[in-house]
Amino acid sequence: MDSMINHYTANKKRRNDDAYWPGGKIGLRPDRPTPAYAQRCREAFPGVPVVIGGIEASLRRIAHFDYWSEQVRPSMLAASKADLLAFGKGEATIVAIARRLAAGQPVTALRDLRGVAYLLGAREALPAWPGETLTLASLEDVTRDPMLFARMTRTFHHETNPFNAKRLTQAHGDRTLVLNPPCLPIGEVEMDAIYDLPYTRRPHPRYAEPIPAHTMIKDSVQIMRGCFGGCTFCSITMHEGRVIQSRSPRSVLAEVKTIAADPAFKGTISDLGGPTANMYQMRCTRPEVEAVCKRLSCIHPTICKLLGTSHAPTIELMRGARAVPGVKRVHIASGIRMDLANLDDAYVDELATHHVGGHLKVAPEHQSDRVLALMKKPSHREFETFAGKFRSASERAGKEQYLVPYFIASHPGSRVEDMIELAVFLKAHGYRPRQVQDFIPAPMDIATCIYHTGIDPLTMAPVDTVKKLRDRQTQRALMQFFEPRNWFVVHKALVDAGRRDLVGSAKHCLIPAAPPPEALAAKRREATEATHAHAEDAGTQPTIGYRPGRKGAKRR
């Protein structure tokens, strides 16, 4: 989990808890911790090379827009002063780095590795590389010019296929950032070797309180990594890659058996999935085409005819997990890619009959096909098709089950008119979303580039973007039009949009003509309570902690 997304809401308010800390306590880790931790490492171990990695560094490996400070920031290498940045999942990279350093090689010799980035000194020459090298616009230029930022984003995303990506460079002042191509995807044998290690599946013993995130995932099993969906608001591809890398059925079922053998196991596998539930063992059927392909999505705007889309391996895996002694239920909690699921009725039947505990979460994201196209998501018709198939499959199984759809408010390109149409759709179909996702511009995403520049980097066309807090709150309120507290915001939005036909007592209306008592009470509270003040730069509080070598320093 990225530290800033973990610490702050979409409206930049400090969250009340941290699911990754014992007891859910917030504020015990710094914002953007990589530079702080790198500095502590240098203080504790002077002269030892510092290598950074993980989700935070991966998503900040080049110049990027930082939503929380509303500015373009340099690569995490500059902020952390690290010797090397390993991006992606990085298991093979970590082993290669450790072995070569142990063999006595200097850290500068590791610049020939895939999946790493580094900063050259002002007088250092660019090392030789067997492939082609592309130069991105400099940090200073992309900070100054939104058009150059958009072009940088487009070039970067088109150089993420590990089979044909070029090396990238970008000037950072008088230094040069060098980004080597991503690591090649690992095969089934390597995946099994990673996941078959004897993990304890327990938090570190020093933690006395439960960790909420561990409680949620402790009985789940990851069956694959990567995603070829290419959603513009999602960071999975930037970190895990576009190529699906799957474990063998033997490895997955061995982990299920390990979980089932735990005396504390209650009988339910909480998830059998990954970034997406139904991409297991799906790959391009023509490796020679995959090696030169530059598509950012294998399934948008249409599903590639060369993509293997069989759900048979997934179905067999689901059946195998259910058959493990001690396992009573196997739930699927990872997201269902509905356009793929619609290709296989047998998969939908298997899912509805055995793997849903009453409610299935899905993510159609929006109702407007124009906005969905900017997201690189399928048409809303795919959601309606899947909803019909799931309803029929549940009826055949003799189960009363429901879909819980997730939608995004304030995504680039989403206008008030689009949100009104979404609200009408929700009302017509009886959906009342209790949890609403507000768009958060994560570093290096295509949608983040659109938010920052107002330009779609793939087409270079202008896109309307919602940035003001009031406008974002309006889009959110329209998605929860049924909440009495939102009456005034929704009423103003409908009137301003010329949609008074949706105000009243008719069946199709979103809100009543007069504000309910709860709306009036909420407005009075709002008028008397202090208004939340947003930090100009969320996450600038000083870091507090043990500093080796400092006079009077004590470990807490």
What can you tell me about this protein's structure?
Helices cover 35% and strands 12% of the residues. It has 556 residues and is of the alpha/beta class. Among the domains are: 32-179, no CATH class; 187-198 and 210-335, Transcription Regulator spoIIAA (2-Layer Sandwich). The strands form seven sheets. The protein has a six-stranded mixed β-sheet with strand order 1-4-5-8-7-6. Strands 15-16-17 form a three-stranded parallel β-sheet. It is globular, with a radius of gyration of 25 Å.
Distance between the termini: 25 Å
Helix content: 25-40%
What is the general shape?
A: globular
Q: From the alpha-carbon coordinates, what is the Rg to the nearest angstrom? A: 25 Å
Which ranges are low-confidence, i.e. pLDDT below 50, for 5 or more consecutive residues? Answer: 531-537, 539-548
Main sheet characteristics: 6 strands, mixed
Query: Assembly state here?
Result: single chain
Averaged pLDDT:
93
Give the spatial strand order of the biggest sheet: 1-4-5-8-7-6
How many DSSP-defined strands?
19
- Tally the helices: what do you get? 22
How big a fraction of the residues is strand? 5-15%
Structural class: alpha/beta
